[in-house]
Amino acid sequence: MDPRQNIRRITTPYDDVIPLTDESATTFYMDVIRVYLGLCSGATSLDDVSLAARELRAHPEYTKNPIDPTLLPINEECKQRLLENIKTLGKYNLVTTDAVKSALSFAFLIQDVPINPTDLSVLRYFSKHPLETLVTSGENLGLSSRTVSRSLKRLAEKFLVRFGCHLDTSAFGVQSAILFFTVGQDADWLQLENALATFPFTNGLVKTTMTDMGYATFLIPGGNRSIAALRASVATLRGTVFDYMQLHIQEGMGSHFNLSLYENGVWVFPSDVKDAFEDGRFPQDESSIRHLECGGSGKGFTFEDFLVASEYRTDARAPPNRMAQGLRMRGWDIDARRISQSIHKFYAKDVAMPFMTYAGLGLSANFCFEISCNDEWKKRIQSVLPIFPNVMHYTSNKGMLVWIQVPSQQQVDYYQAFRSLEKEAGVNSVQSIMTIVQKGTRAMHELVHYWDHRRNQWSVPPRELDLGAYLLDDNTEPLY
Amino acid sequence: MLSRLALTPSLRQAALAEELGVTRSAINQLWHKLESERGLKIGGTLDYGRIGMHLVFGWARASEASDLVDGFTRWLSTNPHVSIVLESTMSSTLDTRIYFEALLPSERQYSWFCSQLERFRKRPYSLPVIHEKATQIANHMNLGLFDGQTWQFDAGFQFETSLGAAKGYADILPATVGKTQTQAAYGTLEEIIIAWSLEQDYYATSNLLAQRMKRAGAAKLSSGRTLRRKLSQLRAEIALPYLSLEDVGLTQRVVICLHEPSSDSTMSKLLLAQASTLPKVHVVSGSNVTVLDMMLPQSADWFSLSTSLSNLASRMADLCTFIAKPSKSRKGLESMLSSFK
After folding, report:
1. How far is CA A421 from the centre of its chain?
2. pLDDT bracket for residue A11 (50, 70, 90)
3. Cis previous bond, A389, omega within 30
4. How far apart are CA A342 and CA A310, in angstroms?
5. Chain A nearest CA to B28, separation (Å)
6. pLDDT bracket for residue B141 (50, 70, 90)
């Protein structure tokens, strides 16, 4: 079957400016552009776009760069920038994967545009109360619900406001893990990247061309047995493929958005950041920490709940009937009432924590820190995180990972605050990666093939978890 | 006037007035105003080798700040021949870089300086230092990007694609974009003082030169005519004019350090060819190493630029972009003159 059957059907008014290519990875990005432009111009129906997007998700390049054209912001500015960029590529006759990828990413790099006071107060409000209804939020903000609704729409377009959800996947028998690594001197990253992208449990991949450091995130179904198999396999990679390597098994997660630092169009640098991690400052007020602890399976969730959770994670404000539609597109029929029940269950059993994300507004520097530390320091660091402008964290058996978004003028100070942690006795190391944009991850839905409906549990053959076999040369003996 | 001057920095005021169709006094007034308010200068990019000097440049790399890095920086800063030391405030490779340039007045001093760098490279220090002798230097200012208020410089997609498009043609790009460094055994005191004057002002007058020579204690002064002749001869031979302005909104210092294996100089050629399109840049290049010390508007995202460059560079190349203190300036020949007395 033609893997691009539905993509080929998409026509756009700009087909003559989209360059053609035979190269598979380049084709992927061209297809993303085509589907997006089709969607923007209204020339293609939503159903056709969804089918095309599904084909894109099956492409190995999607794991490396999970760009879903249906989730890209639809606005004239981005569209025009994208068109300009591809025209430039055409002019230079430059049709390489890197060039097309750049054309796409630079088009959606959010420009700093001013925010009006209403939008700012709505943004602030929803950063604290992501699931609030339009009516209640309107009452609390002194605005009509219509104004709030319009403002949210504007925020989604101009500042890419999205409502996501931290999810304790362990409750569904799926363990999240992150492998932080430094590519070995003799290893070929492009080959490794391809191998990591084909590993069925890879959920996201981040490595810049600037340093040898990167990380891969995994979602591993099947409980402790699966994790043990992954661990054993990963151990073989140290010193061969990776010079440095640390496998983090998730214990918890959370995020903080401190919009109170944004005053009159500029970000204030909090004076307490410089000595934020100094000894005398602990314990800090722990009540403001937003943290979701992984509690493991045994909370009575079903496979259907897992499907709902996968959909809910991408948009925590989507009404159940729209979620039902989304699930139907993927081939599952779950009605809106059943979806609502599942969502209630997530909150009743503490496995979900909603959050709001946004882009632009001057937070252009992105860092990821891998902090290897003891349990006490995990708590200490968490207690400091609420003072940062935009931060997400992931705690693990090895320490924690922290992603921060900060204004570029203050990037050095924030960076140094984290680096200074290395001096502390309970902190073994602090490694960092700097990126232009934060990358998304693959949807959790992709794991459904591993669900054994007959036995009503995950079933993963251990050899499929042998990451080493994917990354090492074919002649290396597999572990299983 | 500035735009015209940026295209041809060697234009004299009279020629400028004629080309622009305004009076000489108008140009003169404007010139003086820009000189006092914006540091307008037509400087000279020199062939230091022609006067027996050696320009050495390079950098040290460390995974983090340490006593060793501090020691190295201190050593460089106290050396009278080191014309600039730039410490990275933050680098794309997330390590610490110490960039330096040094002007060594003789072969002996040059060898000594290199041996000292070698000492740092060896145990017990083991500091990775890369250095080379410069084969060319260039200074550019691209006022075409400036509308009097803001700089139209896209450090993102446009920069990346223009480099990417030229990549296939790297072989035929001009390899020299500035002043090539030759190597003479020595320069006379007179030549060195002329060079110093030309470095500061491409149109230094012979009167000023005579004064400087007297102050420097030159034993025998050439006659006014001989001096004029020598000045214009050396001007043509060792200096290239360039336009420089201060306080025009270029507040961010971004340095690109590239070390390419000798077999592949694609990236270096691309950077050299692209240099003149940057707002303001000082370029130093050797056989395997190229450095661009740029001043960019605050709005330019140095990290995007760095990402674009690494996307284009081969794996063999060591490419690092870093931001550094914008206020640090390069010492010229003047500060070196004490060692000639």
Report:
1. 26
2. confident
3. no
4. 11
5. 39
6. very high
Distance CA(A422)–CA(A432), nearest Å, equals: 12
Structure tokens at A480: 């299983």
**Is the CB of A98 inside 8 Å of chain B's CB atoms?**
yes
Please tell me the distance from the alpha carbon of residue B20 to that of residue B1, in angstroms, as a whole number: 7
pLDDT tops 60 at residue B37: yes
Q: Do A8 and A2 contact (CB within 8 A), yes or no?
A: yes
Q: Which of A369, A363, A398, A397 is nearest to A384 (CA)?
A: A369
End-to-end CA distance of chain B: 41
Please determine, for residue A337, whether its predicted confidence score (pLDDT) is greater than 70.
Answer: yes
Residues of B near A (Cβ–Cβ under 8 Å) read: 64, 89-90, 92-94, 156-158, 160-162, 164-165, 298, 301, 303-304, 306-308, 310-313, 315, 319-320, 323
Yes or no: say if A279 and A213 are a contact pair by the CB < 8 Å rule.
no
Write the pLDDT tens digit of every residue in B238-260: 999 999 999 999 999 999 999 99
Q: Could you tell me which residues come within 8 angstroms of residue B64 by beta carbon, excluding any fewer than 6 positions away?
A: A419, B95, B96
Structure tokens at B168: 């296939």
> pLDDT tens digits, residue range A45-80?
888 888 898 899 888 888 888 888 888 888 888 899
Q: How far apart are CA A53 and CA A33, in angstroms?
A: 11
DSSP characters over A160-197: --EEEEEE-GGGGTEEEEEEEEEE-TT--HHHHHHHHH
The structure tokens listed for B287 are 């056989």
Opening angle at CA B296, ends A435 and B134, nearest 5: 95
Q: Does pLDDT of A393 surpass 50? A: yes
Q: What string of DSSP letters covers B315-332?
A: TTSEEEEEEE-TT-----
Helix pair angle (B266-275, B302-312), 10° resolution = 140
How far does Cα B65 stand from its chain's mean position?
A: 26
Sheet containing B136-141, strands listed edge to edge, beginning at the edge strand earlier in sequence? B90-91, B318-324, B252-259, B289-296, B280-285, B136-141, B179-180
pTM, entire model: 0.88
Closest by CA position to A200, among listed A304, A309, A305, A58: A58
Share of chain B above pLDDT 70, in %: 98
Q: How far is CA A196 from the centre of its chain?
A: 17
> Dihedral, CA atoms, B128, B132, B134, B137, nearest 10 degrees?
-20
Tokens standing for A467? 């990451």
Q: Is the pLDDT of residue A285 over 50?
A: yes
pLDDT at residue B204 is higher than 60: yes
Q: Which of B96, B157, B309 to mutate to probe the A interface, most A CBs <10 Å? A: B157
Q: Hey, are the CB atoms on A210 and B92 less than 8 Å from each other?
A: yes
What ipTM, to 2 d.p.? Answer: 0.82
